[in-house]
Queue: 4 jobs
Job 1
Amino acid sequence: MNWEEANQLWSTVRNPSKGKPLGNNTRLYKNGSEFFITLHNNIIITIFPDDSQVLDSCGWKTVTTKERLNKWALTETYTIPGTSQKPKRYYLFQRNFDWYIRDIKLNTIRRFFDGMVLVNETSNTRIQITFNYPQGVV
């Protein structure tokens, strides 16, 4: 979900203090110009007006958290050259108890960490590895 999509959803909220329901135990909130997606009252995604996003499992590396991050944060698509197909560019997955984000377009895999920032550079979103990155993880 980008900032504009979050803003459109927010325009239909009934009670801002309770947020906009997105799914079971998942809600969208707004504070100033930032949007937050929560799972069980934990902020798992922060969306900024420039469409950058901060991802956080809040220490709950569960199937549900991973599913919500895949559904609501990692939504950028790309066009496969020579076709009209637009698959999702990013996918969060687990291997041997560790989480990773695959960039299908660039065919790269990065280890996921809480506080990871997806930065939108005009039309080229990339994973930024300079924010809160633990040593020895790359």
Job 2
Amino acid sequence: MSDGRHWKIETLKLKIVEMLFRKRNRKADDHPLKDKAARGIAKFLLRIQTKFSEFMNVNTKNIPVKGLKIFLIAFCLFGGGFSIYLIAEAIFKKDKQQPSIKIDKVNVPKYYDQSGSEKLQTEQYVDEETFRGIQSFERYMDSLKETKSGRKLHDSILIIRPGLRDSIRMLKEIYNSQIK
């Protein structure tokens, strides 16, 4: 409260930003661009919050505390009463032709419990040229591990494409199963 006359809404920008974006153990799927975008969104929302709080402070500084409390109680009673009215109208409405809330059965997709991989397994094929390309890429990735800058590039590739190793392994398995 400021001057005992109105509530002052304060935002603790630095603490909120620090709490939201403090360093934590990064997972393989974290990406610096995601953090930058989230930080930008948080700053934007904090700026809007600060402007709104300043606007409300200016417009309510001349209203006594008792008046603010009466307004708050009236607002809560009106909002709660209107919510109860909408719920009661939806439940007890006489006109059933156009119900406010309609309860229907859930439509379950025909193949909800199948991944689709059953169909793909019969159509999987890796030709000789693709397999040679996979082997060449594997050699390239292995050669990156030999230097410090290469290791950084290798790790960044695996961070950006976390399923890459699994995809290569699966393609090799498909190719090897074709040969037999």
Job 3
Amino acid sequence: MLSLNMGSAPGLAPLADGLSAAYWDAARDGTLLIQRCARCGRHQFYPRAHCAACFAPDPAWVPASGRGRLHTYTVIYRTPNAEFAADCPYVLAIVELDEGPRLTARILGEAGDLPDGLACDARVRVVFTPRTDDKTASDNTATDNTATDNTATDAACVLPNFVLEA
């Protein structure tokens, strides 16, 4: 079976700005946020200062269910980016949340293996993976957002990834 190196969340640290700071703060607490327009009710992701559907200003951050389907994916075996080279191979995917928005994320397997049953339209759920600057970290734990002991809250940066639902 193909093994995926996921010792800690990969690559570059995200850059939080005025639009995305609430998103990253919530991820650190184990909650996936998306924006919802007060005028038309549409959900959206990535963060914007206006609704992408009706252009109303200031969409509100709301918790997402954290569940969705695998829209498409690829297994990355080689990358020209040095920041991600040690993580190869890994699964990069577009996940369509049950609320509608699509986002780019990694799909994680058990104990670093390629997920069994990886296929378009497979059901997925979010997990939160602490990112460390120490690329030699041996912690392979992805924190489920439904867990009561959320170790991800202690991390400086936590990235939302997804796993296949059983």
Job 4
Amino acid sequence: MLILKNTTSYSSKKISGDTRNNWVTMMFVTHNRYMCFRKQPHIDTCLKAFKECEKFGFEFGEFGFAGNHIHFQVNISKRYSIQDAEIILKSRSAKQIFEKHPGFRKRYPRGGFCSGYEHYQSTGLTNLEDSSQYLRDQQKHHNITVIGQQNVPLT
């Protein structure tokens, strides 16, 4: 027979890093729902902007581009709220888009690339794979053909 006793650990060793799991599936929509993500260079610029945000503690999963909006998974560091993360990600991606593709300034003269619409939902480890599959099928789901697309995974 096994008897469990109350035990106390007197170790002062802390776990390094952020151990919190805060995976969220987000969706950003382009202003006026213009079809801005139909060309591979535009998608690549947006992906690069998101990847640059990893230095702020963000971790990205799958991406799904569907012509006028982006679905993606992000693990948000505990130092940011959902709203702060959304502001950082939208502003960084818009800045990169306008720098790399100056023609977007004609369509968005005031600089608002993403609309005010926001959608996000918590994505725990239990439904992470379901969310990933949904994101991978975005182009087929919306019947979008990306011009100049290479068969490169978006992760």
